[in-house]
Write a structure and sequence with these properties.
Strand order of the largest sheet: 3-4-5-6
Number of strands: 18
Pfam families: WD40
Order of helices and strands: HEEEEEEEEEEEEEEEEEE
Organism: Pygoscelis papua (Gentoo penguin)
Number of helices: 1
Structural class: mainly beta
InterPro entries: WD40/YVTN_repeat-like_dom_sf, WD40_repeat_dom_sf, WD40_rpt
Shape: globular
Protein name: TCPR2 protein
Oligomer: single chain
Helix content: under 10%
Radius of gyration: 19 Å
Distance between the termini: 43 Å
Strand content: over 45%
Length: about 210
């Protein structure tokens, strides 16, 4: 006799007003009042990261119930992607509409952890909007993809404060998703999905038919 499946229970959760109320709806730029749009989101057990249209990253600490703000220097441009990582240190990678990518190494109150906010920049390889970011589990590798099909690998040395970046793959259509594990980068574009083996620098397509 087949077992009866348990009913699916739908739950409705309230908006996170304690987060939303800490983000301004408008900011003043000279004589102009600019509306702030929320453009990117990522969460983990420690933080809620929200990117905005004014280039400001809002980072809510779930343990301390505190909101902090981080921004890019220079031109204010929309943040298009954010990616959190909790390893030995807490890291957040941020991508923008013009192709800028930055990594923030967050301050921690725990003994032996990072005590000073540091920022690493992925210099000048992307020239268009960042559409995907993926971390290695240990925070030493960051992969970034853009809407022109470029994928950049950044090697981070957090102890030395060094970030070295290089173009590793270029696809003919926009990157829509990246995921990395065990020296294999999963790449999805508007046209296909592939596996990029980072050691051999070889590509294996998933499936045979292009996406329509």
């Amino acid at each position: 006799m087949a077992s009866v499946a348990s009913p699916v229970i739908f739950k409705e959760f309230c908006p996170l007003y304690y987060v939303l109320n800490a983000i301004p709806t408008k900011v003043q730029k000279g004589f102009r009042s600019i509306v702030v749009y929320l453009t990117a989101l990522d969460t983990n057990g420690d933080y809620i990261a929200v990117g905005s249209s004014i280039g400001m990253l809002y980072l809510y600490c779930r343990h301390l119930n505190q909101m902090k703000k981080y921004n890019f220097e220079g031109k204010c441009e929309s943040i298009t992607f954010v990616k959190l990582l909790s390893c030995f240190d807490d890291l957040v990678a941020v991508g923008t509409a013009s192709g800028r990518v930055a990594v923030f190494q967050l301050v921690s109150s725990l003994p032996g952890r990072n005590k000073q906010l540091r920022r690493f920049d992925v210099a000048g390889i992307h020239k268009s909007s960042i559409t995907a970011l993926a971390w290695s589990p240990n925070g030493m590798k960051l992969f970034s993809g853009d809407d022109k099909g470029k994928i950049v690998y950044s090697a981070l040395d957090l102890d030395q404060g060094i970030c070295n970046s290089s173009l590793v793959l270029e696809e003919p259509s926009s990157i829509v998703q990246l995921d990395y594990n065990q020296k294999v980068l999963l790449v999805s574009t508007l046209q296909r999905t592939l596996l990029f083996y980072t050691e051999e620098k070889s590509v294996k397509q998933v499936g045979t038919q292009p996406r329509k």
